[in-house]
């Protein structure tokens, strides 16, 4: 029994009793008698000695109690391990724990482990027993657990002793020979669960094994439970585990519920491939591959939270087959290669070597478009890619380049026994040493970028080298530090130059100058001259020639009047003769005007009153949405896509939180159910075209400071490239990471659609808008989907977009893609009347 759990922290001993008597003896010294004498006298001396003795024994007793009992208090420690038994033939019956063969060998191993521990004076005292859990091929691999009751004060030294590789000393002839023993302490979160379920499964050629959390998909997984699946494949195969759904409680360091995948049948930390919790969308699938024919999957849950769980499929893959093969000779002038299983997780214990050989007189350039290796430690001792003798590890910026000085290059990939990641995707090209970037600009990082991107105000190289030594043209701000930035960014409150040049002399236009909406000063003569001199059209507004002939680009008032003014709605100026352009209610007003989202910061409570959190009923946040009226929300169609598990297309599957700030304080928000969901009929689940949906609340909501709609832009509303817009949400704060507890916000800019389409490999449609920071680091991410892209108009916020998709999160030159809301203005009106 665990003494900790028994509640019996200290074992009473006879010496304690003596001590108690000594203490109770004290009042017996009669003070009144002492008073009668002037000096101490004989009796006084005796009493003094007795009191001193008592005090001394009390102190000694306390010290004994502290050092002996308190420090000696024992805790249960469970160690798990694996070893080769080199002098034993493998029998198929060892896979069945109930077979006589299994039981006989297990008994022998357990006895020999006991014998081995008994030879260690430190371990023998605390050893309880050992259990063999499984065997696998090689000669025979044994997986076991050993239990110890260890004094708290010795926990770490026993851990050290156990983790050192052990070998059995040569036993009596006929004894088992243990080799390469690996041991580690079992994660205490695993063995303290009240219920334990263990499953075993075997893959066969073309025969998958289903691994799913208990109750999936009908019920949430049970609390306080440990479930383990021991997976085996045929010899000479490895196991591929593909999660089709993964939806667990999300917590920092996965401290509540988690799944661990091991490259072993023992829960050895040194063989732990990954620990995962939270939600993984089908766009970001989890898939692992083992290094041998065994794998252990563990689900541990705590007492709280109801989550659906996961479903995965285990299949076997022949060692050396195409899926896991890597390395080789690469020739020609260009080509590509990836880490094994890319973009899914690479297997542990893998070594690959590619030799790239390009035509003589040419050199080699390798470009890593994606690079994600586990753990970034100095000198990359664990998983690494080695190029030209240099080791690379961790997560590198997209398009990291390495070049050779000859026509050959060797690239090595190596993974150790634990913690895997998605790996890398690389291309190689041959280049002339004298002309490394034909018809392109060469960044300091050796990357080549298109010449148009030079001096355009954007850090396309990632190291700003494309923006140095520029001659700025008149449409650009000449920053003091030599950078050029679009004039549009002048005086917009953001330090775009990096030395604040673009934010200087902002409010001080001369008396004969006009102050543009963006702070730029222009001559008064340029106002209303028909040219957009301010670059934000503010010099052409309010020019007394409001009514014009309608074109598709004009704002149309309710009375049919057409305006030339750009974005006339809700700007505080009545432009329509019927005033309909100012018929805006309280939309888009931020009550608290302070200024996961990746690269953002916590929002102030109530700062984004139109932000909504969409939860699967009784479960966690999955998507964002925006309030557009007292009964209608706008979200992304992909959030409500038909699916057999959660029925996300049905209104009854959802609950929505309005006025929410902290996901841990749902009670402070207004909760609503849904009456109906209207996904756009042309939503395309493959291209994410028309990714927009409407949700009608079951009950209207009363607006207040923390709950308010965002203004809907008219079909002609313009969000020009370079305009600052805000993303908000509770999504992941890094790619593949967990969602935020507190609402996050980040400022990004609208990106030119042509540039964006090129960056996104032609996947953009006119129903999509791009926004981001091309240098990377700031972006919407998983869990932000459906939420708003809010744009500041004149004093009000407009819904520029709906978070839709992206190539990962916050990657360089990979902006976030948003549904272009003005394109859907008529559809929203038709369906909601708003
Ligand atoms: C997502 O999975 C997601 N970086 C949303 C936005 C982006 C990427 C992924 C944009 O919901």
Walk me through what this model shows.
The strands form eleven sheets. A seven-stranded antiparallel β-sheet has the order 37-36-33-34-35-39-38, with helices on one face. The protein is built from ten helices and 45 strands. Helices cover 12% and strands 31% of the residues. Helix 2 (14-25) packs antiparallel against helix 4. The longest helix has 30 residues, at 41-70. The model is unreliable at 1-39 (pLDDT under 50). With 834 residues, the protein is of the alpha+beta class. It folds into five domains: 74-186, SEA domain (Alpha-Beta Plaits), CATH 3.30.70; 190-318, Sandwich (Jelly Rolls), CATH 2.60.120.290; 328-436, Spermadhesin, CUB domain (Jelly Rolls, Sandwich), CATH 2.60.120; 544-583, Low-density Lipoprotein Receptor; 601-832, Thrombin, subunit H (Beta Barrel). It binds 4-(aminomethyl)benzoic acid. 4-(aminomethyl)benzoic acid binds at residues 281, 283, 779-782, 784-785, 803, 805-806, 809, 816.
Q: What ligands does this structure carry?
A: 4-(aminomethyl)benzoic acid
Question: Whole-number radius of gyration?
Answer: 35 Å
Which CATH architecture of the largest domain is right? Beta Barrel
CATH fold group of the largest domain: Thrombin, subunit H
SS-derived structural category:
alpha+beta
Low-confidence stretches: 1-39
Largest sheet: 7 strands, antiparallel
Note the gap between the termini.
Answer: 66 Å
What do we call the CATH homologous superfamily of the largest domain? Answer: Trypsin-like serine proteases
> Per DSSP, what share of the residues sits in E-state strands of 2 or more residues?
25-35%
Shape, per Cα inertia axes = globular
| Secondary structure tally, helices | 10
Quickly name the level 1 CATH class of the largest domain.
Mainly Beta
Q: List the domain count as a whole number.
A: 5
What is the helical fraction, as a range of percent?
10-25%
């Amino acid at each position: 029994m665990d003494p900790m759990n028994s509640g019996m922290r200290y074992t009473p001993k006879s010496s304690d009793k003596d001590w108690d008597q000594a203490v109770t003896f004290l009042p017996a010294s009669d003070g009144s008698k002492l008073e009668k004498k002037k000096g101490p006298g004989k009796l006084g001396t005796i009493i003094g000695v007795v009191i001193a003795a008592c005090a001394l024994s009390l102190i000694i007793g306390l010290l004994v109690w502290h050092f002996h009992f308190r420090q000696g208090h024992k805790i249960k420690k469970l160690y798990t391990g694996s070893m080769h038994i080199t002098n034993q033939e493998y029998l198929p019956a060892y896979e069945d724990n109930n077979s006589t063969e299994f039981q006989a060998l297990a008994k022998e191993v357990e006895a020999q482990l006991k014998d081995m521990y008994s030879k260690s004076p430190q371990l023998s005292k605390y050893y309880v027993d050992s259990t063999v859990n499984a065997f696998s091929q090689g000669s025979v691999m044994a997986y076991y657990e050993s239990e110890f009751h260890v004094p708290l004060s010795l926990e770490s030294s026993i851990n050290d002793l156990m983790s050192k590789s052990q070998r059995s000393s040569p036993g009596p002839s006929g004894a088992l020979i243990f080799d390469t023993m690996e041991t580690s302490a079992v994660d205490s979160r695993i063995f303290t669960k009240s219920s334990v379920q263990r499953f075993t499964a075997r893959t066969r050629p073309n025969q998958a094994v289903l691994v799913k959390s208990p109750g999936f998909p009908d019920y949430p997984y049970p609390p306080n439970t440990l479930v383990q699946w021991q997976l085996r494949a045929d010899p000479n195969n490895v196991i591929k585990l593909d999660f089709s759904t993964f939806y667990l409680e999300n917590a920092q360091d996965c401290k509540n519920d988690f799944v661990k995948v091991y490259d072993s049948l023992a829960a050895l930390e040194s063989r732990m491939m990954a620990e995962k919790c939270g939600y993984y969308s089908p766009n970001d699938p989890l898939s692992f591959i083992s290094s041998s024919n065994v794998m252990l999957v563990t689900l541990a849950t705590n007492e709280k939270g109801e989550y659906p769980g996961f479903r995965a499929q285990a299949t076997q893959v022949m060692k050396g087959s195409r899926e896991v093969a890597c390395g080789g000779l690469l020739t020609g002038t260009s080509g590509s290669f990836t880490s094994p299983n890319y973009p899914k997780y690479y297997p542990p214990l893998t070594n690959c070597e590619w030799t790239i050989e390009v035509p003589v007189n040419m050199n080699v350039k390798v470009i890593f478009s994606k690079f994600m290796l586990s753990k970034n430690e100095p000198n990359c001792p664990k998983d690494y890619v080695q190029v030209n003798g240099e080791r690379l590890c961790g997560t590198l910026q997209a398009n990291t380049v390495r070049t050779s000085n000859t026509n050959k290059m060797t690239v090595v990939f190596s993974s150790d026994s634990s913690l895997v990641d998605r790996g890398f995707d690389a291309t190689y090209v041959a280049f002339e040493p004298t002309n490394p970037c034909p018809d392109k600009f060469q960044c300091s990082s050796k990357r080549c970028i298109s010449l148009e991107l030079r001096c355009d105000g954007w850090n396309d190289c990632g190291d700003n080298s494309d923006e140095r030594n520029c001659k700025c043209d008149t449409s650009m701000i000449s920053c003091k530090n030599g950078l050029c930035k679009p004039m549009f960014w002048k005086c917009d409150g953001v330090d775009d130059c990096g030395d604040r040049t673009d934010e200087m002399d902002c409010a001080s236009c001369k008396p004969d100058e006009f102050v543009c909406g963006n702070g730029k000063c222009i001559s008064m003569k340029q106002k209303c001259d028909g040219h957009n001199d301010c670059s934000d059209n503010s010099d052409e507004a309010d020019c007394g020639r409001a009514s014009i002939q309608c074109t598709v680009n004009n704002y149309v008032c309710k009375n049919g009047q057409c305006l030339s003014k750009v974005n006339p709605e809700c700007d505080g100026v009545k432009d329509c003769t019927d005033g309909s352009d100012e018929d805006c209610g309280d939309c888009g007003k931020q009550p608290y005007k302070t200024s996961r989202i990746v690269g953002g910061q916590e929002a102030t409570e109530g700062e984004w009153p139109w932000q909504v959190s969409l939860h699967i009923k009784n479960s966690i946040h999955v998507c964002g949405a925006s309030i557009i009226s007292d009964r209608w929300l706008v979200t992304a169609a992909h959030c409500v896509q038909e699916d057999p598990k959660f029925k996300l297309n049905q209104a009854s599957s959802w609950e929505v939180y309005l006025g929410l700030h902290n996901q841990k304080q749902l009670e402070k928000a207004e909760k609503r159910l849904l009456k109906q969901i209207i996904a756009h009929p042309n939503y395309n689940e493959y291209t994410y075209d028309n990714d927009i949906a409407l949700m009608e609340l079951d009950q209207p909501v009363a607006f207040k400071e923390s709950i308010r709609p965002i203004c809907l832009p008219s079909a002609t509303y313009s969000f020009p490239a370079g305009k600052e817009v805000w993303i908000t949400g509770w999504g992941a704060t890094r790619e593949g990471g967990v969602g935020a507890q507190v609402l996050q916000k980040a400022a990004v800019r609208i990106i030119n659609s042509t540039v964006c389409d090129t960056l996104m490999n032609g996947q953009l449609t006119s129903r999509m808008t791009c926004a981001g920071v091309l240098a990377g680091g700031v972006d919407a991410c998983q869990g932000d989907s459906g939420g708003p892209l809010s744009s500041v108009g004149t004093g009000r916020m407009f819904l520029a977009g709906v978070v839709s998709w992206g190539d990962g999160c916050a990657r360089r030159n990979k902006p976030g893609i948003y549904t272009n809301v003005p394109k859907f203005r008529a559809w929203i009106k038709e369906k909601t009347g708003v």
